[in-house]
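Hi there,

I know you've been waiting on this one. I reran it after we fixed the sequence typo, so this is the corrected version. Both the input and the resulting structure follow.
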Amino acid sequence: MKKIITAALSILLLGACKKDITSLNVNPKTPTTVPAASLFTQAQHTLANTLTSANVNLNNFRLVEQMWQETTYTDESNYNFITRPIPDNDWNAFYRDILYNLKLAKGIIPTDISITDAKVKANDIAIADIMQVYTYYYVLTTFGNAPYTDALDPTNLFPKYDDAATVYADLLKKLDADVASMTATSASYGAADIIYSGDVPSWIKFANTLKLKMGITIADSDPATAKTVITAAVTAGVFASNDDNAKFTYLGATPNTNPVWVDLVQSGRNDFVACTTYTTNLLSYTDPRLPLFFTTDAAGSYSGGIPGASSDFNTFSHPSAKIEAADFPGLLLDYSETAFNLAEATERGFIATGTSAATYYNDAVTASIIYWGGTATQATTYLAQPTVNYATAAGTYKQKIGTQKWFALYNRGWDAWIETRRLDYPVLVAPPTALTVFPERLRYPAAEQNINGANYATASAAIGGDVPGTKLFFDKF
């Protein structure tokens, strides 16, 4: 018996020697190639998380915009963004986790044998490119000059920085090219697209609406280009109702939950309360969104902590259960913002659609109130107040639009920060203990200073200094 077993083993070993054993080094649970659709979904998810998050290591713009105030650790509400590597985290999220994944997806699609229709491939590439344009918008409006032509090459550790205004102009051209390459009657990513489920007409409208947004952003710095861009976008068709909103739908179960739920509920932390700057303004306007934004305080009313000061969690109002819900969506672009942009474009004489700035303004406010769970009747009552009514509200169109846009962008602090810098409204008073001036930008990442020093130094000098007070290309006036 022993001889038979020995002989059998010898035969097996001889047989094994004749086969390619390199396959034994392949882990079947770790694929060597990734479908483009998976990379696209992951990029969407990371983008929505980055812009929606309340994590102090990543997104602190609700604090900068004095919508929220910190309870115990007050560094970020005092404009300290360097003790924690916040610029590095934002930079990595944008470049490594979003832009690079989208680049990989665009590279895979042309040779993906699972997609047999050339028009579908063209749609997929264009949509990924639109998402890259959207992401670069935040890179440029957050940091200023940034890597672009040399970016997204992992073998190049020393990418040069491109002029932000020049990159911005190229992004607008890309949007035009993307829309021109798309076929509205053909499919795209399908269920892999969490925002629009692969609906190409919705993506075309998104691109035009993003173009309007980008045009209004440079309205002061380059009004001629802004007018051309905005006119083309409006003619092509932009968002017309909340049904068009670009929202990332989160699920009620981990790991694909609303990041605010993760940061505030799942973590069990009590790090934030309302800020008095925001609650005082909402109260003064008798805003119907107040109970939709916040809980009542210990006295049964609404109040917030002082900007920059440690604030007792049990005393003040908290973010509402609505915003803390595990499945509350993240908004990337919405109709309310779009209508405000149309109101401003009308005031500036960029468009003449036959609709007044006041009508667009009313539409914007109404859309926001309804989105948050209010009613059309509440919106009508709110807009009838002399302090809110477009004809009688105080200040210039920038003040009227800027104030109401600040309210409407409640859960979109990053965008509220861009608008406050651009419109100069609302006027926010710096915390008494602020570490720096109001942040007009984020500093470049420490990693860039240490690794890509020469290009970092050139970029810093070009924008006027790598400091928080340096105004960026779109905000020179």
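Quick highlight: The CA atoms of residues 177 and 283 lie 46 Å apart.

Best,
R. S.
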